[in-house]
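Sample entry (159 residues):
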Amino acid sequence: MSDLLAKLKAGSLNSKDIPWPGNEDLLIRMRVYNDNDHLKATLATDKVITNVTMSNVERYNAELYTQLLYLVITDLDNKPIGTIADFRTLLTPEIKKILIDLLDALHEECSPDPENMTSEEFDLLLNDIKKNVEETVLSVSNIFTLRKLVLSLVLNQKK
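Predicted structure, serialized as tokens:
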């Protein structure tokens, strides 16, 4: 089994221990988010910003990222870092940008966008998945990867 396939199967169990930006002594755990995390973050954001308009869409998106980061960042015992209000006070714009970039990199490592994969890399992954379709496909956290995998599997069955 390839390393990528193992990461795809692990889904949101994939995590990485990293230092808090600007404080090498404070380690945090960041994990891959899933659809449920995104839904929770969206619902929490909708409670904070109830009326989204063109004039506040950037504020809405900023809050959505804050909520999502709060859900996927924990201490090393997998406990939340205080409340969302506590967490929000720790985020400067610079720290938030670094954390978002780290989360994006973790997602790309564990559930890459198929647009960023070579056709050889995708074919290798597809061949690995064919050996264990059900267990793998249900764990993929990147909807674009999942869609391309399912389409490839279905189209190959029709041949």
